[in-house]
Structures are given as C-alpha cells and as structure tokens.
Design brief:
single chain, mainly alpha, 0% strand, elongated
Length: 165
C-alpha cells in the first residue's frame, strides 16, 4: 500500500518528459494549454497586484492576502513554465479554487469583516478568468494524464531491483 502511494507521489513530481500519444497534435494542444494556463495565472496575479495598489492594501486582513495572492499567481505561472508536472498543476488548481471560493464567500457573507460587491471593479472579470483558468488546468491535466506513457517495467516476485534478469 505505501509502496503504491510512494510510486504515485513520485510520478506526480517525475522529471521524465511526457510524450502524449497521438503525435504532434496532442503535444501542441498540451503546449498551448500550458502557455495559456501560465498566462492566465500571471493575469490573475496582475489583477490582485493592481487591486492591492489601488487601495485594497488598506483593508486590514484582506490587503496582505491580496499581495500574497499576486505573488502566488506570478510564482505559479513561472512554475508551470519551468516545471510542467502534475504536482505544479495541482498546486495551481488549488490556488485558483481557493481564490474562487474566497471571492464567493466575500460576495455572499463577507470575509474577514469585508464584504465584496458584484459591482466592484474586476469582480466579474476575476470570476470569469479564474473559472477559465481552472477549467484549462483540468483539461491540460486530463489530456496529459490520459495519454499512455512508456510501458512500465515489472519486477519478478522475490527479485531485488539490483539483480539482473
């Protein structure tokens, strides 16, 4: 059980190149989704930085969170470009999902004593961009995960990894 879990975690962070089946069409789609996700994450980071600079920094708890959100958006965009592994995609999807959740909570009941309005600047645009980004990340992950990789080598029972076959 733990060996299976360790193997799955290793695959999530695996540095091996993924070669999507289906040739260049699937590889091109995966590359376009990768670039689009990175650009959308950077855009989300820019929106949060812009809002922080325009006055959200004055809001006691939400202000620092907007700055942290901006930094996280830029950092995750760079991570997807430099390290396009499933673990990076999972981190980016979690970031986006938490952003959407925080904005919805702020719109409905308020968050940390601050209630956002749907008519406020960038609220509808942010919800739209974040939803598109989450969907793009999920599609990219499914596209690359659904493609078979090279066949796995199986070990014989009782044989140690260092013994020749």
């Amino acid at each position: 059980m733990t060996q299976t879990t360790a193997l799955r975690l290793r695959r999530l962070a695996s540095p091996r190149r993924q070669h999507p089946a289906g040739g260049t069409g699937r590889r091109a789609a995966a590359l376009l989704l990768r670039l689009a996700c990175a650009a959308l994450l950077a855009w989300i980071g820019y929106i949060h930085l812009h809002l922080w600079l325009e006055g959200y920094r004055q809001i006691p708890t939400d202000g620092p969170l907007f700055l942290a959100d901006a930094v996280a958006g830029f950092a995750l965009a760079a991570a997807l470009l430099a390290w396009p592994r499933p673990l990076a995609r999972l981190a980016a999807a979690g970031y986006i999902a938490s952003d959407i959740g925080a904005l919805l909570i702020s719109l409905i009941v308020g968050l940390f004593g601050f209630k956002e309005s749907l008519s406020a600047a960038y609220v509808v645009q942010t919800l739209t961009i974040e939803t598109i980004t989450l969907l793009a990340l999920l599609i990219w992950t499914v596209l690359t995960a659904a493609t078979p990789g090279p066949p796995a080598r199986r070990q014989r029972r009782g044989a140690s990894p260092s013994q020749p076959r």
